[in-house]
Write a structure and sequence with these properties.
Number of strands: 10
Number of helices: 1
Structural class: alpha+beta
Strand order of the largest sheet: 1-2
Low-confidence stretches: 1-29
Helix content: 10-25%
Length: 132
Amino acid sequence: MPTLALRHHNKTVFMLILLVLLVGHVDATPSCVAGTNKCTSCSNAFNCAACSYGYGVTSLAGNNVCIACQPANCLQCSLDAGICTQCPAYYRVDGAVCQLCNDNTNCLACPSDYMVCTNCRYGYRVTTNGTC
């Protein structure tokens, strides 16, 4: 049995030495901490896996970090900060960006076509041709 204990001890010492050598060559300072910098969860100590509302992931210096959604007028983006998934009233998602509804003064929603309003401001109604 002493031989087994010695082997386990040697393995532990080897792993500690290997860890010290790696830390000397790699930046071991974690850059991802869930709950900070708009990151809600991390895939590891250096990469954010999910971001707060209004933020998405982008690669910066080889690490995934959270930044504000990039398309103009975008409320929420997919995991990728450059792809919008939710727009404010008067806009609709068109591909990866927010596009202004054609009747932008009274139209609150035009989800399938920017020319066709489906929801109007209070006091207005949608006409048969899709305007307010």
